[in-house]
Amino acid sequence: MLVEDQSAIETNQIPVCQSFSDLSHFIRSDMRQQNMAPTEISRVSSYLSEMILAFESIKHIHQYRTPVMLKMFGTFFVALIPVVYGPYFAYSAEDYSSGLFYVMPLMYSVVLTALVNIQDQLENPFDQYGEDDVVFHTGRFIASLEQDSPKTAPQSVR
């Protein structure tokens, strides 16, 4: 759900919300019918609410985007700094005998371009583009759950 395009999040969250609803119904009705202790039902309900909060938090991280003005500001200065400071670097070239006057405008351009590119890569941590993206190993997680689950479920919990 999170690695797909942001426009698909509305349709992709429906099964997740339905699963949360099913779990809530199971906790409210089925667990009580099996005479489970109220403290255990309360604990499971609190776990469910924590799962829902974690899902909402991660969904909001996925939906967040850098404000347009901040992007425009960065792009504007990447294009503007070399032009504005060009005459200054040309003027200061008289004072320096080394090639520092060539290095400084290049360094400004490289640093500002790198900052804009970093901003673009950090914007969506789920797009699998970049070194620090969030990677979900769902297959490994499901396999570990299947190994840990008992082969036969008990008929009733007392």
Task: Explain what you see.
The protein is mostly helical. The chain has 5 helices and no strands. The chain has helices spanning 9-33, 38-63, 68-92, 100-123, 138-148. Helix 1 runs antiparallel to helix 2 and helix 3 (68-92) packs antiparallel against helix 4 (100-123). It is elongated. The model has no long low-confidence stretch (mean pLDDT 79).
Give the helices and strands, then pairings.
Blueprint: H1 9-33, H2 38-63, H3 68-92, H4 100-123, H5 138-148
What distinguishing features does this structure have?
158 residues; mainly alpha
Count the DSSP helices.
Answer: 5
Rg computed from alpha carbons, rounded to a whole number of angstroms: 27 Å
| Euclidean distance between termini CA atoms | 38 Å
Helix residue percentage: over 70%
Brief characterization of the structure:
This protein has five helices and no strands. It is mainly alpha-helical.
